[in-house]
Design a protein that fits this description.
It comes from Prauserella muralis. InterPro entries: NAD(P)-bd_dom_sf (IPR036291), SDR_fam (IPR002347). This is 3-alpha-hydroxysteroid dehydrogenase. This protein has a single domain, classed as 3-Layer(aba) Sandwich (Rossmann fold), CATH 3.40.50.720. With about 260 residues, the protein is an alpha/beta fold. Strands 3-2-1-4-5-6-7 form a seven-stranded parallel beta sheet, sandwiched between helices. The termini are far apart. It is globular, with a radius of gyration of 17 Å. The relative contact order is 0.15. α1 links the parallel β1 and β2. It has eleven helices and seven strands. Helix content is about 45%, strand content about 15%. The structure holds nicotinamide-adenine-dinucleotide. The site of nicotinamide-adenine-dinucleotide has 26 residues, from α1, α3 and α8.
Length: about 260
Amino acid sequence: MSTTVVTGSTSGIGAATRAALREAGHAVVGVDLSGADVTADLSTAEGRQRAVDAVLDRCSGRLDGLVACAGLGPHVDDPARIVAVNYLGAVDLLDGLFPALRAGSGPAAVAVSSVAAAHLTWETNPIAAAVDSGDFSGVEKAVASAGEYRGQFAYAAAKNALTVAVRRRAVEWGAAGVRLNTVAPGAVDTPLLRAGEDDPRYGASIRGFTAPLGRHGRPDEIASLIVYLLGPHAGFVHGAQFVIDGGADAALRPHAV
Ligand code: NAD
């Protein structure tokens, strides 16, 4: 039986992924703020280290899969916390658990990014310098120009940086035999999306935009893609980003290939 770690395992896409993996016969170690196998606050360096240590302890240093899914939505009015959870909460776990994945069987990892990753480029990403220097103390200032929409700016910046982080690791991870990809969901019906719909700044635009397929995604639909990417049928899939958004990105940016 293979063992996979899922962060953000108690809600939304993470919970659906945990359920799908279990149904497929895999052991799952869930990580979340509460109610999970491993309880940790991924917004802090201590919490991220505690999560890595607790997972290594539980899996005896050998892991077959990792899904970095925990995240906060753009409605959260704390850019530093959004970047800490959505970027560092994923990348520090990827890096911290890489040695255990190398020791696993057919190992693979998936980071949950977002279609928002393509809302800016690395060259215009306000946290690119922080990512490269490792000093995240200036995040608030870096996104301040977005005013009351700084949460959205920080969210897109963190997801863009996460997708770049995965691509940057493709050579080293590929050589080590550990596949690593991102999924980039559009609007998926979860508590995170519903909080955005209820937010006075974002609610109208979220409710007013419908993907070409005419609905939001379901968490289990994203989980299906993640399970595929972790499994042997995706054996040559590495360093790639999979948009899963009901056609929204194609409708908004038809020439962006
Ligand atoms: P959700 O709110 O249902 O689940 C997020 C999970 O992350 C929760 O279980 C929460 O407790 C956990 N989490 C938050 N902060 C944490 C912290 N500091 N430490 C540990 N765990 C923490 O949301 P979701 O929609 O299922 O989101 C899952 C991922 O999918 C996120 O990374 C999100 O950015 C991404 N995503 C979601 C959508 C969408 O429309 N729902 C779209 C694109 C990307």
